[in-house]
Amino acid sequence: MIRRFQLAGQRAWLRMEGALNAVFGPALNPFYFLGGIAYFLLWVLVASGFYVYFFFDTGVVLGYQSLEDLTRKQPYLGGVLRSLHHYAADGMVLAMTLHLLREFFMDRYRNFRWFSWVTGVPLLWLVYASGIGGYWQVWDRLAQFIAIGTAEWFDYFPIFGEPLVRNFLEDGGVSDRFFSLLAFAHIGIPLLLMVFLWVHTQRITRAVAAPPAPVALGILLALVALSLIKPILSHAAADLGAVPNNLKFDWFYLAVYPLLYIWSPGAVWALTGGFTLLLFLLPWLPPRMHQEPIVEVHLDNCNGCGNCVADCPYAALSLEPRTDGRRFVHEAVLRPDLCASCGVCVGSCPYAMPFRSVGELV
């Protein structure tokens, strides 16, 4: 079942990549830089967030009013940057989701790749938690709905003295100190996210942490244009004496919240927890797709130049002292458990080319 789904997804994905290659060319195909695009959008979030936070006042009333002032009084700077912050967050979720699907369809999460896959799973929850925290700080009707839904979601576990949702059902239930805590979390979680991103790429020797400049510029211009065409505006201020309705949803972050009322908090915990557990276990679940033969080092054609070691993306090759008695100092040695059969080393080797010299290696 999993393999059939993978193969169908792989065929569809390759067709999409081919279509994008025809438009942008392989060097600028955004589907080849999804991880780098997610990184880039994170920096857009950091830059725009710094500006917005400079004018943001933490508090039950002040938070909402300061964002309204920023949006209304600076429509072409503060308002655009607020909208850019929002759309970059959505774009990061989209880029991460596509990146995850690509690696899954291409079966690039098993063997030595398990580390990058498993350390990527917490990134999903960190991004999600940071985004939800950002919505809370606006403290409009949408934030009120999210607060009530989140409280009911966590109240499923009987670990609190009183139900959390009671704090959001009447005026006075939340304080300025609570919003100061939210602001701290909204800054602290992205810092933790950066640490996990660093860990996530440790098994890749030259991880692409940024897309090509034309791709990055195109994405930035598209987000700015979207911010100008459809600026992000707050709902009415939160009113704990009224039920929030007529809400404009951000489905990238809030899709789970309607399920709390269509199903139940327990069912949503089962869905999200089960999906997270499945992602963690995927590298060890059958079936495995066909593994291409790993690289072989032929010492009669190796002079220990080190090109393959320098170019291997997975640090699967190293230079070691010569073992065959020839006059060269080093030889290339393969770690089979790290080899992805990508063929990069074959292309970097001057003696693996179809028209290589047959003379003595020097």
TrEMBL record:
Pfam families: Cytochrome_B, Fer4_7. The keyword Transport does not apply. The chain crosses the membrane at residues 31-56, 114-136, 178-199, 211-233, 253-282. GO terms for cellular component: membrane. Residues 293-322, 330-358 form the 4Fe-4S ferredoxin-type domain. PROSITE patterns: 4FE4S_FER_1, 4FE4S_FER_2, CYTB_NTER. One of its GO terms (biological process) is respiratory electron transport chain. GO terms for molecular function: electron transfer activity; iron-sulfur cluster binding; metal ion binding; oxidoreductase activity. This is 4Fe-4S dicluster domain-containing protein. The lineage of its organism: Bacteria, Pseudomonadati, Pseudomonadota, Candidatus Muproteobacteria.
